[in-house]
Amino acid sequence: MIILKSRDEIEKMRASNRIVAHVMALLREQVRPGVTTAELDRLAEREIVARGGQPAFKGYRGFRHTLCISVNEVVVHGIPGDRVLCEGDIVGIDCGVLHDGFYGDHAWTFPVGKVSENARRLLANGERSLYAGIAKATAENRLYDISEAVQVEAEQEGFSIVRDYVGHGIGKSLHEEPQVPNYGKAGTGMKLRAGMVLAIEPMINEGTQETEVLTDGWTVVTKDRKLSVHFEHSVAITEHGPDILSKL
Ligand code: MG
Ligand code: MG
After folding, report:
1. Nearest CA to 108 among 136, 70, 152?
2. Of 25, 64, 201, 214, which residue is most buried, by most CB within 10 angstroms?
3. Does residue 202 have a cis bond before it (omega within 30 degrees)?
4. Could you state, in order of their start, the residue ranges of all structural domains in the chain?
């Protein structure tokens, strides 16, 4: 079932997403060689609580941390810990917040210091692919218009789209219908409507699209251990087009 949000509810979701966006802005400044992923996680939790929110991932299906932190070949769901970030790494940070009954969800991948040319290309492509998808999130379009736009943007540069994980509706639950795949055929899928709020989140790999889960039960890595990036915004569909809620 698709749950449409009223204007008031969208404003509440903007408030939750603003907390996530503030956390992400803070983390962007802290991502550097020498910092551990656990330090970033603690910082995020403090900031969320100080702003009156609750970490959304903590306790979700037994996950024990505030952030998912995914370094290099990790696609998503990396667990914060002792890992020290090094010059040349890329680090995907995914953050969810519950505030006033509604969820916010936002992810970004950052370079650590100076990164390889290929990493830079992949990062730039991930961001572009996300915005290509967001541009299609309008009430005139269909769901897979978003999906195809993301896919085309990524694949035209020779990168591959992860199929095993997808975006989602979001609201009073972290994951609502519909699923928002990052691949598909434009002109198909459900009709988009004002009041839908979608977390659009391409995961794009340097090599194969295939992934596997490590024995910790969470960490998703590329099968070929090449790089992966993840970019996500929570986006409301309005009469006036897409409204990115997770942006300051
Ligand atoms: Mg997320
Ligand atoms: Mg999400």
Report:
1. 70
2. 201
3. no
4. 7-243
Q: Write down the pLDDT at residue 160.
A: 98
Note the pLDDT of residue 131.
98
Residue type, 62: G
Task: Check: CB of residue 243 under 8 Å from CB of residue 236.
Answer: yes
Q: How far, in Å, from the CA of 169 to the mean position of ligand 1?
A: 11
pLDDT tens for 47-79 read: 999 999 999 999 999 999 999 999 999 999 999
Q: What's the CA-to-centroid distance between 107 and ligand 1, angstroms?
A: 5
For residue 198, the CA-to-ligand 2 centroid distance in Å is 9
pLDDT of residue 237: 98
Residue 51: the pLDDT is: 98
**Closest ligand relative to 180 C-alpha:** 2
Which ligand has its closest atom nearest to the C-alpha of 235? 2
What is the C-alpha radius of gyration for the chain, rounded to an integer number of angstroms? 17
Ligand 2: centre distance to CA 98 (Å): 13
Q: Residue 193 C-alpha to ligand 1 middle, in angstroms?
A: 22
Q: Smallest Cα–Cα separation from 68: which of 48, 96, 47? A: 96
**Candidates 2.60.120.620, 3.90.230.10, 3.90.660.10, 3.30.930.10; CATH matching 7-243:** 3.90.230.10
Q: What is the pLDDT of residue 1?
A: 93
What was the pLDDT predicted at 94?
Answer: 98
CA-CA-CA-CA dihedral for 215, 216, 220, 222, to nearest 10: -40
Q: Cβ(79)–Cβ(219) under 8 Å? A: yes
